[in-house]
């Protein structure tokens, strides 16, 4: 893995030219994959993929899946049926990719090399379906090299990674839609009217059938039940395992995609699929582990990898519904993210904020700077030495508080390791 990071001077350099040459040298493994489903968007990609995988599996299909980033170990990115890739197989496919790169004197990025190795692993261990979560953008992402996907999902699009994708929603939507192919099925999750208009513009010459959230399929929450409805079906379901109303949108999008792919779904199997879907650090409640030693039995601890405005909004809506308890936040962010657009969603929700450095991250935002920005918003904030100290301080201040650690998926990985 360390060797791979030295292959290209930049960590991110969006282009398809290099990976296409590398894949050709590896005999185009991406063309041998069966029933590929792409998932592109700004937020909700990981959860939507997790829901879809679970639905397909509960309907007796096998699924391989590629997601990013990982939280604790790289193997999490490559799921072969129901298991993370083994160290042995990962080493084998990375070595094969690396040897080809050296032999052909290619310059490729870390992500291009690891995606190519993933395709090799999937060919070696085929499944009925292959779900590919787009890494960044769409048009020039390494998952865009698959020419004949059977379905493509667009999760909610909002501002993020502007330095690579452009500084307007139009530009970002153009990049995301650049992955969409002809002769596939396009499933569009909930979008702002501005984004939906732009998607329409981008795919007006695409003849693929499309399903649009709010038009072709609807969801609602009624009396603690999750209701999904489209032209063919009405499902009355238990609430999904993943917390927050935004997860109902992701679950609904996954159901729409599964219906398009499989045809009729079984209500019982669907219910089980949603209840058994797991996705780490998405409003995840920590109920066991070492971190609980730093807080009181009445404290509740949540983790969420929210790092952009749309995700901050989703988390704040969830926290708003917690009644009768004070909410404290522990925040660590990368310096490529804008803390102002993040924090404005929490001004009236959180009692106080502890800012921390993200361990092992060169571009971690200075905790002191973060605290100052929060103070300007009227949020009582100060810097803590690390997560465990922050937990200890909050628990001493309020033994009944709800605590949420958030701001970056990189921080989530470190926190899960600590736990």
Give an overview of the whole structure.
By secondary structure, the chain is α/β, with parallel strands linked by helices. It has 2 domains: 4-275, Mur-like, catalytic domain (UDP-N-acetylmuramoyl-L-alanine:D-glutamate ligase), CATH 3.40.1190.10; 284-418, Mur ligase, C-terminal domain (Protein-Tyrosine Phosphatase, Chain A), CATH 3.90.190.20. The protein has 14 helices and 17 strands.
Proportion in helices: 25-40%
- The radius of gyration is 21 Å
CATH topology of the largest domain: UDP-N-acetylmuramoyl-L-alanine:D-glutamate ligase
Any idea what the CATH superfamily of the largest domain is called?
Mur-like, catalytic domain
Largest sheet: 8 strands, mixed
Number of separate strands: 17
- Mean pLDDT value: 96
Q: Supply the number of helical segments.
A: 14
Structural class: alpha/beta
Query: What is the quaternary state of this protein?
Result: single chain
| Percent of residues in beta strands | 15-25%
Tell me the distance between the termini.
Answer: 24 Å
Q: Walk across the major sheet and give the strand order.
A: 4-3-2-5-1-6-7-8
Estimate nothing, just give the exact number of structural domains. 2
Any idea what the shape is? globular
Low-confidence stretches: none
CATH architecture of the largest domain: 3-Layer(aba) Sandwich
Keywords for this entry:
6-stranded mixed beta sheet; 16% strand; single chain; 14 helices; Protein-Tyrosine Phosphatase, Chain A; 8-stranded mixed beta sheet; alpha/beta; globular; 419 residues; UDP-N-acetylmuramoyl-L-alanine:D-glutamate ligase
């Amino acid at each position: 893995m360390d060797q791979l990071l030295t292959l290209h001077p930049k960590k991110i350099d969006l282009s398809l030219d290099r990976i296409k040459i590398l894949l050709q040298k590896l005999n185009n493994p991406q063309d041998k994959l069966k029933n590929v489903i792409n998932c592109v968007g700004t937020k909700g990609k990981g959860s939507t993929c997790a829901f879809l995988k679970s639905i397909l599996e509960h309907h007796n299909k096998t699924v391989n899946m590629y997601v990013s980033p990982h939280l604790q170990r790289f193997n999490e990115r490559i799921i072969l049926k129901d298991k993370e890739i083994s160290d042995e197989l990962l080493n084998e496919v990375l070595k094969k990719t690396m040897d080809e790169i050296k032999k052909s004197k290619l310059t490729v990025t870390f992500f291009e090399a690891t995606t190519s190795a993933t395709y090799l692993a999937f060919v070696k261990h085929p499944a009925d379906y292959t779900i590919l979560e787009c890494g960044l953008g769409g048009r020039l992402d390494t998952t865009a090299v698959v020419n004949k996907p059977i379905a493509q999902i667009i999760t909610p699009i909002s501002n993020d990674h502007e330095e690579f994708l452009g500084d307007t929603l139009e530009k970002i939507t153009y990049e995301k839609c650049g992955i969409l192919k002809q002769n596939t099925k396009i499933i569009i999750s909930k979008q702002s009217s501005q984004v939906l208009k732009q998607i329409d513009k981008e795919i007006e010459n695409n003849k693929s059938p499309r399903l649009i959230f709010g038009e072709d399929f609807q969801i609602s929450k009624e009396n603690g039940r999750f209701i999904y409805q489209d032209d063919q079906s009405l499902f009355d379901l238990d609430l999904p395992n993943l917390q927050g109303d935004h997860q109902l949108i992701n679950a609904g999008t996954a159901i729409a995609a599964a219906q398009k792919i499989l045809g009729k779904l079984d209500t019982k199997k669907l219910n089980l699929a949603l209840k058994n879907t797991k996705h780490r650090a998405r409003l995840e409640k920590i109920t066991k582990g070492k971190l609980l030693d730093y807080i009181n039995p009445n404290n509740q601890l949540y983790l969420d990898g929210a790092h952009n405005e749309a995700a901050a909004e989703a988390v704040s809506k969830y926290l708003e519904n917690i009644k009768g308890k004070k909410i404290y936040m522990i925040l660590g962010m990368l310096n490529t993210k804008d803390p102002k657009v993040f924090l404005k969603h929490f001004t009236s929700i959180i009692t106080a904020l502890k800012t921390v450095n993200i361990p092992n991250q060169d571009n971690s935002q200075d905790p002191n700077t973060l605290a100052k920005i929060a103070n300007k918003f009227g949020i009582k904030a100060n810097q803590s030495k690390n997560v465990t100290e922050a937990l200890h301080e909050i628990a001493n201040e309020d033994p009944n508080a709800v605590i949420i650690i958030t701001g970056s998926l990189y921080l989530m990985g470190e926190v899960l390791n600590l736990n």
